[in-house]
Every structure is written in structure tokens, then in C-alpha cells.
Amino acid sequence: xxxxxxxxxxxxxxxxxxxxxxxxxxxxxxxxxxxxxxxxxxxxxxxxxxxxxxxxxxxxxxxxxxxxxxxxxxxxxxxxxxxxxxxxxxxxxxxxxxxxxxxxxxxxxxxxxxxxxxxxxxxxxxxxxxxxxxxxxxxxxxxxxxxxxxxxxxxxxxxxxxxxxxxxxxxxxxxxxxxxxxxxxxxxxxxxxxxxxxxxxxxxxxxxxxxxxxxxxxxxxxxxxxxxxxxxxxxxxxxxxxxxxxxxxxxxxxxxxxxxx
Length: 261
Description:
mainly alpha; Tetracycline Repressor, domain 2
């Protein structure tokens, strides 16, 4: 079951600029955003596209609102990602935003779905195609770590943490979490297939351990400002994943037949 929030992460989480520099996170610009974030799998759901005579304009407005929502969550945390602030950052009238998202919870859940979808796109686009199956299996940790250091990853963590003190958000977040779970299962099955591994319960536990460890490490790096220590921790996770792969392969490797003469 996907943890809605990690207990070790304190209920108040407000990233600051210096912390993001420590993480090596890219800075936002006023130009078009290029999203570089991801959970470990497929997008949770397709972004719903408006229909009708003004569909293209409404879709463009929605895109600006979603990008601005991610940006405000990343820069100011959940408390600072107010509806007026997001409308201002998106460059749209507050009335236009409220027409699509009547409440803050409506808006935040849409941003969560949007960010998760972009995460899946990033991980698929940056999947390692060369090298051995073992190398590809281990490389998935580097991709996930890179993804979690981006604004969309921070935005999703902010939303998860906010469920601790926002009852309405917590109640409605459960639906998103279930979709995220299904996404994790699909991605894990594909990861196992590419690596030549059987999709076992042990593999699921290993993948979940990696995800939660990296997510917690991203938060820790924000507070500690020590990227070198974080990279050392990532190296340990990669060593653990390599050992897991080798052990799994040893279990399925045919045992030599002993002929008694």
C-alpha cells in the first residue's frame, strides 16, 4: 500500500531555494517548462483534454495553470500554493481558474495527476536502452533519483505531506493514490520483464524500498544541504539492487547435473 506520507518527514515541509540548489534542481524560467520528474512507472491517468469550439484555448490555459501549480508548490509549499498565487503565476484571471477548479483541493489534485503523468513520461524517455539487463535494472535508480530532485517531485511530496493536516485533501487523495498504485504495479512488471526477472513479491518489496528511500533522501538533502552524502546513499541503494539482481539470477540459473559413473 502506498504510504500517503512518511512518518519520519515532519508535517511541516517548506523547501527553500538554498536547499534546492543543494539538490542540484534546475531553476524555473519564464519560458516554456520542460518537465523532468517521475515516479517509477506509467502516468496515473491521461490528462483530460477539454472539448468544444474553444478547446485549444482552454487546454492551453489549463496547461499554464498546471505548470504554475507545480511551480508554486515547489517554491512555496502547499500553504503558499494558494489559488490567487497560482492564477497570478499562470498569468490567468482568477475567475478563469475557478471556472475549471472551484476549490483549492480540486486544483491541487489536478496538479498531482499532471505531475505524476509528466513523471512517467520522463522515466520512459530517459530509460537506458544499451548495456546489459543488469545495468538497466540498476540504472533505474539513477533515473528515479534524478526525477525526484525536480520541481514536480517536490510538488508531489508537498501534496502528500499536506494530507496530514488537510482532511478534505486526504479523503480525496486516496483515489489518486490508488491510481498511483496501479501505475506502480504496471511499471514494476515492465521493469521485471526488461531485466529478465520474475515479478515476485520480493521484487515488489525491493522496488518499494528503493522508492521510499529515495523520496526520504530527497527531503533529507533539502534540510542537510549535503548532496555528496546523498550520492553516497544512492550508491548504497544501487549496490543493494545489484546484489538483489545477482541473487535472483542465481535462483533461476539451472543447476549442473551430476552424473554418477
